[in-house]
Write a structure and sequence with these properties.
The protein has about 120 residues and is mostly beta strands. It has strands spanning about 5, 10-15, 20-25, 35-40, 45-50, 60, 70-75, 80-85, 90-100, 110, 115-120. A hairpin with a 6-residue loop joins strand 4 (about 35-40) and strand 5.
C-alpha cells in the first residue's frame, strides 16, 4: 500500500516562502500523478496543484498560480511544493496525494498532512 508522508510545514509571515516535501513509500509511484490539496479550518478540502508522472504537465488552482511551483523526483519518489509570496488565506493543512488520474476530483492516496500558518 502506497504511503505518503509530508514535511516542511510551519509558521511563516505574509510574503514569506516555504517548501513542502512529500516522500512516498511502500509502493510504486509509476504512472501516478501526484499533487497537493489543502484544507483550512472550517472549510472543505481544495485542490492546490498536481503534476503528471513524467512531470511535463502541472495544474494549479488560480489562487496560487505564479506563487507556487510543484515538482517531482521519480527516482527518489518525492514531490515538492515551493510556495512564495504567502498570504494569510494560504493557511491550511496541506496534503500530499496521488492518483492514476491527474484530473480526479479527489485523489486515491493521501498523506496525513502538514500544517502551514501564514501570519498577517
Amino acid at each position: 500500500q502506497l504511503q505518503l508522508m509530508e514535511s516542511g510545514g510551519g509558521l511563516v509571515q505574509t510574503g514569506g516562502s516555504l517548501t513542502l516535501s512529500c516522500a512516498a513509500s511502500g509502493g510504486s509511484v509509476s504512472n501516478l500523478a501526484m499533487g497537493w490539496f489543502r484544507q483550512a479550518p472550517g472549510k472543505e478540502r481544495e485542490f492546490v496543484a498536481a503534476i503528471s508522472w513524467h512531470g511535463d504537465t502541472q495544474y494549479y488552482r488560480d489562487a496560487v498560480k505564479g506563487r507556487f511551483t510543484i515538482s517531482r523526483d521519480n527516482p527518489k519518489k518525492t514531490i515538492s511544493l515551493q510556495m512564495s509570496s504567502l498570504r494569510p488565506e494560504d493557511t491550511a493543512r496541506y496534503y500530499c496525494t496521488a492518483d492514476l488520474d491527474i484530473h480526479a476530483p479527489i485523489y486515491q492516496y493521501w498523506g496525513q498532512g502538514t500544517p502551514v500558518t501564514v501570519s498577517s
